[in-house]
Each structure stands twice: as C-alpha cells, then as structure tokens.
Amino acid sequence: MIFFPDGTEVKAVIFDFDGVIVDTEPLHYAAFQRTLEPLGLHFSWQEYVEIYIGFDDRDAFRHAYSSQGMLLEPDLLHRLIEQKAGYFLEIIGAGVSAYPGVLELIVHLHASNFPLAICSGALRSDIDPILAMLGISDYFDVIVTAEDVAASKPDPECYQLAFQRLQSLYLNSFSKETTIAIEDTPAGICAAKGAGLRVCAVTNSYPADRLGQATFVTESLSSLVPPK
Q1: Which tens digits make up the pLDDT trace of 96-120?
Q2: The CATH number of the domain covering residues in 2-22+97-224
Q3: Whole-prediction pTM value?
C-alpha cells in the first residue's frame, strides 16, 4: 500500500482518462465542432468546459440537440457518435501529451503491483490508441468506458462497475475505503463519491475551489510520485 499526501491509505487506484492522463479535452471539443458545425449546433469552448466536459458522447449530443429544442433520434445519435470518433482519431494522429507526473505515477504503481483501472466517459476506440502511443496499454487491469454503462458521470455506475471488476480480479483484497479515484471535474468527483470511493482531484481542468468535494486536491500528479 501507499499513503497519499492527506494520509489516505491506498491499495487500488482508478484513473479518469481525459483531463487526468492526457490533455484531450481540446481535441474532443474540436471533434465535436467538426461534427456539429455543419448542422448549426456548435457551441463555445466555455460552454464545453461548463456543461459538456463531464458528459460522454451520447449525452453531449443529446444536450446539443435538446438545448435547441430538437429531438435526436437513436439512429442519428449513433451516426453522430461514429462521425465524431472518426474525427477524433484523425486529430490525435498529430500526437498527444500526458500531463506532468502521470506516466511516472502509473509506472510506479504498476511496478508496485497496484490494482489499476481506468473509468472514462470516452469510447474505448478513443482510449486504446492513446494508451498505445504512451506505452502503457498493458498497465491497467480494468478499463470501463461509455459503452459499458447506461449513464455518464455524475452517475456513479461507471465507478461502481470499475471497482467491482477490479476487486473481483484481486479477490476482494481491498475495499472502497482504500481505493482512490483520480478525477479532474466536479461531475467525475460526484460519480466517484457516489460509488463510495475516495477522490484525488487534480486542477488540470478546473480551479481548486471548483473541486472541493474531493478527498483532497493537488495541482499536479507529480506531487504523488515518490522520490527516487
């Protein structure tokens, strides 16, 4: 086990993906705009940060339509998600960067045989190529994505599922009290806390005063990497 800065005893770690491991939110925003602008449904970056950043793609498109009083049929929703995923893959082809300290933390935890999971509102097809680019494809025991749950964060279903799958793999060798989620948004914090987990919030996307519901807040995951 390790102890996080606030004294929290940790035996398992569940990472959010976008905004925690990689700075992909501007890339997702660009892919949404390429999809929605021809339909006259684009939105500003500020709106994305304030409203959309906690949604998975399904809820983001649903909100874009409902905010204009428009009905989004299931077949069209499916096509929009596929189109946006294609744009996203094109955009990440130019490369992505991990946030400071996060790769060192993941490598350290993996080398120390920590149970590790990802709990994300992104599609699995968004996540896998980036993990491969970063060289950490095999570091996570469990990956829960938008395809695995019915509702996006702040609903706790995704974190409940990630914890259950991880705990099952490790034969119940840790509890919710010793599992920490690493998040960057108020919606993500709400989801993790709703699942009964402790939460480390990192100020990659929001200032500390917006993340006050977390167990503790850090400016960078570099602060969690043990000194060599």
Answers
A1: 989 999 999 999 999 999 999 999 9
A2: 3.40.50.1000
A3: 0.88
